[in-house]
Amino acid sequence: MKRTKGIHHITAIVGHPQENVDFYASVLGLRLVKKTINFDDPGTYHLYFGNEGGRPGSIITFFPWAGAYQGKVGDGQVGVTSYAVPKGALSFWEERLGKFHISFNKTERFGETYLTFDDIHGLHLELVEREEGTKNAWSIGDVTPEVAIKGFAGATLLSSNPGQTMNLLEKVMGYEKIGEEAGLVRYKSFGDIGNIIEVKTTTSGPGSMGVGTVHHIAFRAEDDADHLEWQSYIREHGYGVTPVRDRNYFNAIYFRESGQLLFEIATDPPGFAHDESFETMGLELKLPEQYEQYREQLNQTLIPIKIKDPEQLL
Length: 314
Description:
Elements: E1 7-14, H1 17-27, E2 31-38, E3 41-50, E4 59-64, E5 77-85, H2 90-99, E6 104-109, E7 112-118, E8 124-129, E9 151-158, H3 162-172, E10 176-181, E11 184-188, E12 196-200, E13 213-221, H4 224-236, E14 245-246, E15 251-256, E16 262-267, H5 295-301
Parallel strand pairs: 1-4, 5-8, 9-12, 13-16
Antiparallel strand pairs: 1-13, 2-3, 3-4, 5-9, 6-7, 7-8, 10-11, 11-12, 14-15, 15-16
């Protein structure tokens, strides 16, 4: 059996790109590690936020469409995206969410305390303290490495066929079932970050893609060789899997699992610093070679965005 380390990235659909940047960079304190375009829809940004180096397991990516219709969270989607913060940091985040007038609830499950809230466009998020994972060296405003989001804690999957989704995680993806509570089954991979997946055991009704919903969840492959093994392995288990697609910062394959979630498997390398320096990641619009000829047109089409000092948002 093959085993994935865990989540590579999560990609969601949101509204106005500046609102997206304000929330994830200025409020949550993540680094905008890459400003590029949707390769399949080049008139739209593809924005990547993560820890200081854009480590796999820390990256959330967005397709921002200003004025797009609101989606509905339901079966076939990631219902909740969970972030890990250092031990002792949750009180800081309670205060920070309150400071920015973000409503939140405090909940308990599997022996852990969560802060649950929505982003500016309705995406369901959580914060939870975890020992695992290295500290995030990125700082902005009051968000320092002592309290900064380290990466994903995990994700909650909403499936139209929970039994089949759980079977895929355990028997194909190599996750270990470690608990069941309050209508959720918890699985764990061997990575130190992004290693928890929870599946809701009952259906939620159909979702619809739009603003405030997750488009897909990606899992980690070690390198190109491991990636090709995953492609064959997934196909052998009866899933229709795409050819390898070059996403510039990783290679990707996709398949739709039995519960209607879109799964991706993505390579850890080459990462985000190969087309700009570590120090300048996220500052300039980066384009794949096939779109470089349209740079001037894209710069006129795309809505300008900038990272703001958090105090400007108060």
